[in-house]
Amino acid sequence: MKTEYKIFSGVAGFLFAAAALYGFWTHGETGQVEWIGVVALIMSGLLCSMCGGFFWFVARRIDLRPEDREDGEIAEGAGEIGFFSPGSYWPFGIALSASIAALGLVFWMWWLIAVGLILVIFSASSMLFEYYSGTRHTAEH
């Protein structure tokens, strides 16, 4: 996780520097700062900082992975990484539900926002519990 938090922290630092440079540059060209770009760069930097902070927090609590060690070998990273669903349709359902909620947000239709959020909660819960009930229920879970 050290590699991940270093990458995200570096990108965040770049975005903050780019925001300062962009604000200075637009102020010099037009006499006023172009705030949309500055705010977008700052928000992007904050998002990368949040991800970098999460990876830093996790890296302190787990053992070093082979890719985080100088003497790590490729073969040490072999084996099962985790379980990934081979044929789930629920990610499409989540995307469709989020699109419905976003469409309601764009046109400021509170009822469509509510329907979209309810569908997002339902589809995310269904994806989470896909292997705990129904036809895909397995004994090992």
UniProtKB/TrEMBL annotation:
GO biological process: electron transport chain
A GO molecular function held by the record: cytochrome-c oxidase activity
Any one GO cellular component localisation term in the record: plasma membrane
Taxonomic placement: Bacteria, Bacillati, Actinomycetota, Actinomycetes, Micromonosporales
Recorded superkingdom: Bacteria
Pfam families: Cyt_c_ox_IV
Residue spans crossing the bilayer: 7-25, 37-59, 89-107, 113-132
Key words, A-Z: Cell membrane, Membrane, Translocase, Transmembrane, Transmembrane helix
Subunit structure: Associates with subunits I, II and III to form cytochrome c oxidase.
InterPro entries (alphabetical): Cyt_c_oxidase_su4_actinobac (IPR021050)
Protein name (Swiss-Prot/TrEMBL): Cytochrome c oxidase polypeptide 4
Family according to the record: Belongs to the cytochrome c oxidase bacterial subunit CtaF family.
Reaction catalysis annotation: 4 Fe(II)-[cytochrome c] + O2 + 8 H(+)(in) = 4 Fe(III)-[cytochrome c] + 2 H2O + 4 H(+)(out)
Organism listed in the record: Paractinoplanes tereljensis
Topology of this chain in the membrane: Multi-pass membrane protein
Primary localization class, coarse: membrane
The protein's role, per its UniProt record: Part of cytochrome c oxidase, its function is unknown.
EC number of the protein: 7.1.1.9
Compartments, record wording: Cell membrane
